[in-house]
Design goal:
Blueprint: E1 2-6, E2 9-16, E3 22-27, E4 48-52, H1 68-81, E5 86-92, H2 94-105, E6 112-116, H3 126-134, H4 136-147, H5 154-167, H6 169-181, E7 195-200, H7 208-217, E8 221-226, H8 233-236, H9 238-248
Parallel strand pairs: 3-4, 3-5, 5-6, 6-7, 7-8
Antiparallel strand pairs: 1-2, 2-4
Helix pairs in contact: 1-2, 3-4, 3-6, 4-5
C-alpha cells in the first residue's frame, strides 16, 4: 500500500506507473473511496494513474472534521510530491467539486479537468441528509435508486453499496454537506483549460442538465452522455467511459 504524509497523517493512494511525467489523478465522490476507479486503471496511455482515498475515507487516516478546503489542500500536497510535467484531474460528484475548487485556487497547475456526474452547484436533498443522520441502513437501501441505471447488473450495485458502507454515516454526511454548500456557478465561465464532462443518461443525482451548464459556459469543453448508466457511470459502463478518456488525453 502507498501513502503520502499530510501534516502527520497518512493519505492512501493507488498508483499505476508509466514512463512519462504525465499524471491523471482520480478523486472519488461522497462516501466513496479509491476503489471506485478500479476499472480506470485499465487505461493504457502514457500517464501515471493515481486514485486516492480522501481524508477519513477507507485506508486514509481519520480527521476530526472534513471540508472542501481540506480536500483541496490534500490534493495540492499530493501534487507537490509528484515530479509531474502534465497533470489532468478527474473528479466524480464531490470529487468534481474538489477538482473545480483546486483549479480555481491553482489555475496554472492543471492541464485539463474531467468532470464526471458533477456540477457547478450540488444541492443535496434534505431526505438524503436526514437519512444519513437518523437511518443509515435506509440510506444504503435507497442508494441504488438514485445512483444507478435500472439496467445496471445487481452485482455491480451490491459491490458499490458494500464499499460505501465502509465509510460510515458520519463521514458520508459531511461529504454530502460539503456538496450541499458547493456553488461556483459565478466562476464557471472563467475556466480557461479544456474540460471533459461525462455523465450517465439516467443520472438522477446530477442530471445531464448539470453538464450542459458547463458546455454553455466553457468554450473549450466537450460533453459525453453515456447510455444505460446513472450516477456511477465509471463502473456501470467502464469500457465506454475509458474510451472517452483515452480519446481525450495525449499519449
Amino acid at each position: 500500500m502507498v501513502f503520502f504524509n499530510y501534516k502527520g497523517n497518512k493519505i492512501f493512494y493507488e498508483i499505476k506507473k508509466a514512463e512519462s511525467r504525465n499524471f491523471l489523478i482520480f478523486i472519488h465522490g461522497s462516501g466513496s473511496n479509491s476503489n471506485i476507479w478500479r476499472y480506470q486503471f485499465d487505461i493504457n496511455k502514457n500517464y501515471n494513474l493515481i486514485a486516492l482515498d480522501l481524508p477519513s475515507h477507507d485506508r486514509s487516516d481519520k480527521f476530526e472534521s472534513l471540508s472542501l478546503e481540506l480536500y483541496v489542500d490534500v490534493l495540492q500536497k499530493l501534487a507537490e510530491s509528484l515530479n509531474y510535467e502534465k497533470m489532468i484531474l478527474c473528479g466524480h460528484s464531490l470529487g468534481g467539486a474538489v477538482i473545480q475548487s483546486y483549479y480555481f485556487t491553482y489555475p496554472n497547475f492543471v492541464n485539463k479537468l474531467i468532470l464526471v456526474g458533477t456540477g457547478a452547484k450540488l444541492r443535496v436533498s434534505p431526505i438524503i441528509l436526514d437519512s444519513l443522520k437518523t437511518n443509515y441502513d435506509k440510506f444504503l437501501k435507497d442508494l441504488p435508486i438514485g445512483a444507478f441505471s435500472r439496467k445496471t447488473p445487481p452485482n455491480i450495485i451490491n459491490e458499490y453499496v458494500k464499499e460505501t458502507s465502509k465509510i460510515g454515516p458520519e463521514v458520508t454526511y459531511q461529504d454530502f454537506s460539503i456538496c450541499d454548500r458547493f456553488d461556483t456557478m459565478n466562476l464557471t465561465s472563467t475556466i480557461k483549460i479544456p474540460i471533459i464532462m461525462i455523465t450517465g443518461k439516467e443520472d438522477k443525482l446530477t442530471p445531464v442538465k448539470y453538464a450542459n451548464y458547463f458546455k454553455e459556459k466553457v468554450i473549450n469543453s466537450k460533453l459525453y452522455v453515456i447510455e444505460k448508466a446513472g450516477h456511477m457511470v465509471m463502473i456501470e459502463q467502464p469500457e465506454k467511459f475509458n474510451d472517452i478518456i483515452k480519446d481525450n488525453i495525449n499519449s
